[in-house]
Amino acid sequence: MGRPVVAPFVRICATEENQTGNTYRTVYYNLTDRDCPLYHWPGHDAGKREVFLADGGEIRSSTASAASKDGGLETHSTMDESHLYTTAELREMKDVVAANMWKRKRGAGTWYLETTTMYEPGEESAAEATYNEAAALAEGRKRRGSHRLYFDHRWGEVPDLHDEPVLRQGLRDAYGDAMAWMDEDSLVDQVYDTRTSENRVRRFMLNAQTSAKDAWIKYEQWIACKDSTKELRPGDMVCLGFDGSVGGPDADATALVACRVSDGHIELIGCWEKPDGVEGEDWRVPREEVAAAVYQARADYRVVGMYADPPHWDDYLDVWHREFGHEMLVQATQKRPLEWWTARPTQMVSALLRFHTAVLERRVTYTPAEDRVGRKAELTLTLQRHALNAREDRRRSGLHIRKEYPKSPRKIDGVMAAVLSYECRQDAIAAGVDAASDWFMPKRIR
Q: Over 80: is that where the pLDDT of 442 sits?
């Protein structure tokens, strides 16, 4: 229920001294043009950078330096084009203004609005930080509690820009009601102008997520693998991929992926990574919970193979080898059937190339998050994030993948587990396991 604000102070953040931005220009126009209803609002005094209100209060356009010096009594703030907040000073402006309003939330009902074009990955803009915060909440990586973030992202999903009917629909999706005053044909012509880069089309015209220049898998390549008609079901013949960690300040994640032998459909069964913020302090991988997920996967599906990277999990792998390693129809080695070392350059390069090619040719598929609910939807988003985080790492042995830098919080373990599961699946096909309709699972007689 809305209520009046006593002495409102609305701050409109600007990126440069000589640029008040679209937001303040719109406010100024509405208050100074005789044809606008707000012009007749009594008692206001509108200037080029500040508006004083009749009953107290003001609307002010501020640069980074001004915002950090003022007293911090904002009741509302707008932060337009936050993808441009890429310098430490601009990010500090946003943080200071937001902190000022959090302190006065109970009494003044403060809130702020951030509007932006899609950010450029890796620039560490304020928009990228907000997008990552929304992703963390959507994936269940942090406590929701009373956290209040309304996140609205409208974009056009166009895996192939050369598909003109899909492109046109993507532009309509991105522009929404604004398409009423746009020329759709001109927009399409601009897309196909050789001087317009694909990155610019996706960011500024489709408002879609883009990828870093050295991304191993591009965003549009990954989303092209969505398939709403497919989903893993109990009893499916699958191969598992496992990439583990133990925890600690810079810990990697632990991930378990299943890949269906018949068609290469993948699903992230579980992912355990350090929560953001204070919840991640002293965090360790819940090893027993991970082990339980492995056993549950064997109960839910017909697991014919499992490739696991051994570091940090040798003790568990010893147990798994003893308990069910001999049952695997696909084995990494006869002595240690589950153990697949990612540290072997030649084999790793081959597995990565095989998976990457399958993604490009859409022979790897996954169920879209929008077609799933609860934890399964969260895990689908997690796998996408890990896939898009992977960076190309060119070495003498060939193309490997890595995080953007060694201690980066942006994990890639989910896609590494997917690579292992797909490699195991390909070995299953080579061994003829997929054709064995009457296969049986040997059991040890005690």
A: no
